[in-house]
Amino acid sequence: DALEHGAATVPVAAGPRASVAALWDRFVELARDSGLDTARFRGAAISVPAPVSYPGGSIATPSFEPSWHGAVLPQLFAEHTDAPVLVENDANLIALAERPGPDRTGTLVAVKLGTRIGSGVLLDGRLHRGVSGAAGEISHTPVDGEAAIGCTCGVPNCLESVASGGAIVARLRAAGRQVGGTSDVLALAAQGDAVVLDELRRAGEHIGRVLSGIVNFCNPSEVVLAGAMSASSVLVATIRGELYRSCLPMVADALDVRASSSPRDAGIRGATVLAIDEVLAPARVDELARAAAERTA
Q1: Which of 19, 20, 111, 248 is the most exposed place for a label (fewest CB within 10 A)?
Q2: What is the CATH number of the domain that holds 163?
Q3: Domain encompassing residue 52
Q4: Residue 102: pLDDT above 80?
Q5: How far apart are CA 208 and CA 214, in angstroms?
Q6: Which pTM value belongs to this model?
Q7: In sequence order, what are the residues at sequence separation of 6 or more whose Cβ sits closer than 8 angstroms to the Cβ of residue 43?
């Protein structure tokens, strides 16, 4: 429904409480427009472009707005609803949306390539968050390149500061190109701009090298690339080539590297999976059954 009705602007700079209030107002508006009763709301999942601590659910070192560090969005949503509202890293949600195989139990690495870079890992169909929720944070791995944008991680020349869409935009602006964002980068690449294509290839090499260590370690069946920059065939091809070049032959032979079939809504589909799993958890179903029995007694 959010895609069909269009996106609303969230006042991120105003802080997490104001943003949560705006999101809830938008949800109520969408429910009303769709003829849905908010009293029947059972749960939701929220995607954020930052690490989320596990199991606490607080946002950690967000690049999009440092003031959000430590924000616990489920607690803020509790001011508006008694239903569970989960918060998850956007790349983790993409991984859930792209679970491979008919039994959905495969091993997969999902990478979000946008203004920033994120990654999520599924092991045997289960989301691997790690001890504190930071599993998959490849974006803060140091690489052999020069940072073009700042990053809150504190690691010099991390992958995100060197090879993300935001870094490519900053580097092209410094070279005199008129680019407003990643969509302009993609448009110039489609026109065959040699400087832009070179930037995309260099970024792909950096990303592929970092990913190769992850792929060699967990031996997934798929690496799925999503996010705005996954629309660049040059970037995807370079990452694929670097993975097949750098990974062990027995790992590369079983590996499929592809762009997401629907990168625009992969995060939404993953959030839906997460929310349904929570709402239909046995304990919650038992609770709803008990409440219904008490009402009819």
Answers
A1: 248
A2: 3.30.420.40
A3: 2-90+266-296
A4: no
A5: 10
A6: 0.87
A7: 83, 84, 85, 86, 275, 278, 279
